[in-house]
Amino acid sequence: MAAKLLSFLLFCSHFLLQLHFSAGQNVVRAAYWSADSGFPVPDIDSTLFTHLFCAFADIDSQTNQVTVSSASQARFSTFTETVQLKNPSIKTLLSIGGGSSSASDFASMASQANTRKSFIDSSIKLARSNSFHGLDLDWENLSTLPQKTNLGLLLQEWRAAVDKESASTGNSKLLLSAALPFRNSDYPIQAIQNSLDWINVMAYDFNALEGRLGDYGIRSWTQSGSGIPSNKLVLGLPFHGYAWRLVDANNHGFSAPASGPAVSPKGELGYGQIKNFISANRATKVYDAAVGSNYCYAGTTWIGYDDTESIRAKVSYVKQNGLLGYFAWHVGADDEGRTLSRAATGS
Description:
InterPro entries: Chitinase_II/V-like_cat, Chitinase_insertion_sf, GH, Glyco_hydro18_cat, Glycosyl_Hydrlase_18. Keywords: Glycoprotein, Glycosidase, Hydrolase, Signal. Belongs to the glycosyl hydrolase 18 family. Chitinase class V subfamily. This is GH18 domain-containing protein. By secondary structure, the chain is an alpha/beta fold. It folds into two domains: about 15-240 and about 310-345, Alpha-Beta Barrel (TIM Barrel); about 240-305, Chitinase A, domain 3 (Roll), CATH 3.10.50. The chain has helices spanning about 75, 80-85, 105-110, 115-130, 145-170, 190-195, 215-220, 270-280, 310-320, 340-345, and strands at about 5, 30-35, 50-60, 65, 90-95, 135-140, 175-180, 200, 235-240, 240-245, 255-260, 270, 285-290, 295-300, 300-305, 325-330. Helix 4 packs across helix 5 (about 145-170) and helix 5 (about 145-170) runs parallel beside helix 6. The protein is globular. The relative contact order is 0.17.
């Protein structure tokens, strides 16, 4: 296999440190819970968060309505009630889509007014019937300008429907958010700004060989066109990493050549799994402050990930730059002691 560079999947930029949020902001300290992770909802320490995303609902390609699989229905229907047992003030959002969902189904739904309406109306009904406080869109892999234009129409119509539902029922408005790529590339800025309460910037799993790291991505959102206000951006923190097979065990820094993934078929490991690997293999841990990320190595196995140092640096970046907050993907990948979740809160 052709050699790859370990920096292919870096998670962060060179983040500077500062210790205060902008005055008056309602800070978002959030995490996604993934039904596919198998992590029990009652085991979530909701006291460490202000918002939790229940992931994922999907879209029915025939009706364009939002659906929850039969395997997930029981956990989704009690999600809010369960996490509020430990934190009565926690806000929950139903997340729709995800990386495994069909991008073509979302593109088809968003292409016409009547199919957008089916999606929107069903999402609001589903959120209300399952006691969620909001809705989150994770439509990934948008590849054309017409798709991004239709995304803007979807968001505008979703906002109008959410406002109308609240006015007619007297219910508090549902929150609206969307998970978007680490950098903006022709996304409908004005529709995003006017329609969403915030955007979750997925500042991880991107190609650092482009020379484009996390801070570049944030600036691409705030400086594009009229720009998204920084206090509408929520920075993504990965609670996972990637393992690679070193070409040379003695060359183990960032950008060292690798021959392919290690440990698992795609190399992806949760933070708890990484800690177990470090313990079992007596791996050497390194925090590279210049890059703002962690890695460990044992023999020819190298893992890039975020540990407490880089998590704290990213949260400090959020504070310094007036971002609304952070979110983690995903809560079930943390270790049993909730080490990364606690590091993010400063506890």
